[in-house]
Amino acid sequence: MTARDPDSPSDDARADGTTTDATTDDSPTHDAAAGSDEIETRVGLRYTLRQVKRDTTARIGIYTVGFVTFVAVLASIDYYVFDYAVAEAVWYSPVSDPEEVQRLLPPVFMENQFGTGVLEHPMGTDHRGRDIFVRLFYGTRIAITVGFMATGIGLGGGTLIGAVSGYYGGWIDDVLQRVTETVYAIPFLVLVIAFMTAFGRDLTFAMIGVGITSIPVFNRLIRSRVVSVREEDYIEAARAAGVKDRNIILRHVIPNSFAPVLVQATLQIGVSILIVAGLSFLGFGAQPPTPSWGQMLSASRNYMLPAPTFSLFPGIAILVTVVGFNILGDGLQDALDPRINN
Amino acid sequence: MSDPLLSVENLKTQFFTEDGTVRAVDGISFDVHEGEIVGLVGESGAGKSVATSSLLRLVDSPGEIVGGEVTFKGRTLFGLEEDANGDLRPRDDMLSEEEMRREIRGREIAIIFQDPMESLNPVFTVGGQLREFIELNRDLSEEEAKREAIDMLREVGIPAPETRYDEYPHQFSGGMRQRVLIAMALACQPDLIIADEPTTALDVTVEGQILAMVEELQRKYDTSFVWVTHDMSVVAEICDRVNVMYLGEIIEHATVDDLFYDTKHPYTRALLDSMPRPDETVHELNPIRGVMPEAIDPPSGCRFHPRCPDGREVCREVHPEPRDLAEAGEPTHRAACVKYDAFDVGYDESRPLEADVTGGFDAGLTETGGDE
């Protein structure tokens, strides 16, 4: 097949290799390439994760997020597949009121006017006698679902709008950005509540509403990157090769603009969890008896003085989760920043 | 001679900026025949790159192709006509944007870009990008395209292509990346490849290897090239015919031998003189005076006259169009300089411009003259 002088490829490998040894491995064998592991894996998820793990704080973030997500998965399985059967078998149902009601019990080893804490209910019981620990456990499902779904909607919508807007520029950019700014200008809580009033008060619309309000964040972030990425030669090269605009945006523009968006998404998950907890507190969101942290907080506010621990635990759960995502986001940011990275 | 593969007539591309209209390409005409390498030479800012992206209609706002005609294999890539109101509008036979993308770009005409460091997408493997272009332009399945991509990588002299296929651009050296870009252009089996200064970013050793390889592959595939460069030695090495551009115009056109041994235009002469030569020892190189003026406000008359050693009064007034100066039977040799008799505008009687310069009348020259 090749019409070339058989010597020339190897000549060239030598010539290139001597000038660029430091950054490139021109050796023809795979073993040699694998030897320079550091360079080999500079791109990709695994490398980024390893970079994140180097940082102690970020590692705490990863473990926290991992743990909370794991709990949420367990809870989801029990909820969707067994309809809380597992919870009832090993502990208490998080939704139905127990038969002999022991309301507002304090955590174990503590006492309040309603009684003494028992080992059976390590975090005490709520105003209907349900076990707080179980409800917290199952509330994780809502928090994580909401965090990921709302952020996913914002991320997907914002990325697409921002990329199209930045890539085409001109009037398309103007229209999309002005619309985005209009959404941005309305206080998000008002927007979400108006949205839910119009469509329905349940959790699905809470997620969609929060997702929509976070679109401008992602949109503006990725647009600012796309505006510079679209000037790159490889975009021009793709255009010159006849690649469709759609594929240029999806395959070439977005992946090259994505690093800051990924960081923002991680932070946004925490924010979304917080917002939806706030909404549940106001009565918009997961409806009783579905266990959710925000709604537990909401119920506990009437018993703040006689049973303060009732509101304490859901609060801690929200705090730990949100902080976990934030730490992870910061760690990702450092890991993806080429200036710190080395 | 048969019909040319690509023919460009009076192509004009302008950029409409806030400071005024930049006439980046101002009425260039040239053609490329099958199996030929045609050079497009000029200093930075002469409009070479704009000219090449105009061929594929890739000029972005605020730039716009405002006139001329580009024909490729009998199809109109660009052409305007006047409608009833005297306004210009695209001709009916001009290919639509969709047709350009689907049928011309990549498939019939490919571009090799200047900077191999920037022309590959850093987040995809080299093989993946090559495969994408092949799949797109040759209607092959993913597997066939992958095999073809590996073959192409081998063809351009990349050792162990099966392994390199899965590597990322940053794992390639500059020369290797340029080879990949050439593989990308060739892989789609176009009839014409536009090479936009493909060796400028490489060192001379690698440049030599790449040029040798291109010549080899050109012979093998019989692809035509438009080779854009500012390097006269590359021109001598690789081109069959050459167009010399200055400030948006083609001022000389000749076969490569004629251009070097029978140089007509003073600008080309000056370009050649400014190069170091292995057979002569000089203490100082002989640069062209001044810098190229802005295309936003080109000099009157001949655009080269403020820097021209042969400039005379008449050059300021008469704007020469290139004319064929070759003797009968010789290959075409067009040049746009009024000092040749064919122009007959009274060059011989005209006063040399040099006197004006010392008198300080010519603001353009005294202003730019100090830069060098």
Q: What's this entry about, in short?
A:
The complex is a heterodimer of chains A (342) and B (372). Chain A is mainly α and 342 residues long.
CATH fold-level assignment of chain A: MetI-like fold
Task: Note the main sheet of chain B.
Answer: 8 strands, mixed
Major protein interface: A-B, 45 and 55 residues
How many beta-strand segments of chain A? 2
Give the overall average pLDDT of chain A: 81
* Radius of gyration of CA atoms of chain B, rounded to a whole number: 22 Å
Rounded to the nearest angstrom, the radius of gyration of chain A is 26 Å
**How many H/I helices of chain A?**
15
N/C terminus separation of chain A: 43 Å
| Strand adjacency order, main sheet of chain B | 7-8-9-3-10-11-13-12
Alpha carbon gap, first and last residue of chain B = 45 Å
Ranges of chain A where pLDDT stays below 50 over 5 or more residues in a row are 1-42
Specify the helix fraction band of chain A. 55-70%
CATH architecture of chain A: Orthogonal Bundle
Shape of chain A: elongated
Task: Please state the structural category of chain A.
Answer: mainly alpha
Order of helices and strands of chain A: HHHHHHEEHHHHHHHHH
Task: Determine the CATH superfamily of chain A.
Answer: MetI-like
Q: How many discrete structural domains of chain A?
A: 1
CATH class of chain A: Mainly Alpha
What does this 3D model show about the protein?
The complex is a heterodimer of chains A (342) and B (372). With 342 residues, chain A is mainly alpha-helical. Chain A has a single domain (49-92, 109-336), classed as Orthogonal Bundle (MetI-like fold). Chain A has 15 helices and 2 strands. In chain A, β1 and β2 (115-116) form a beta hairpin. In chain A, α14 packs antiparallel against α15. The longest helix of chain A has 37 residues, at 132-168. Chain A is elongated. The model of chain A is unreliable at 1-42 (pLDDT under 50). With 372 residues, chain B is α/β, with parallel strands linked by helices. Chain B has helices at residues 48-55, 97-104, 126-138, 142-155, 161-164, 174-187, 204-221, 232-238, 256-261, 266-273, 313-317, 354-359, 363-369, and strands at residues 6-17, 20-32, 37-41, 63-72, 75-82, 88-90, 109-112, 192-196, 224-229, 241-246, 249-255, 323-324, 334-335. In chain B, the strands form 2 sheets. In chain B, strands 7-8-9-3-10-11-13-12 form an 8-stranded mixed β-sheet, with helices on both faces. A 5-stranded antiparallel β-sheet of chain B has the order 2-1-4-5-6. The longest helix of chain B has 18 residues, at 204-221. The chains are: A mainly alpha (342), B alpha/beta (372). The interface between A and B is large, with 45 and 55 residues.
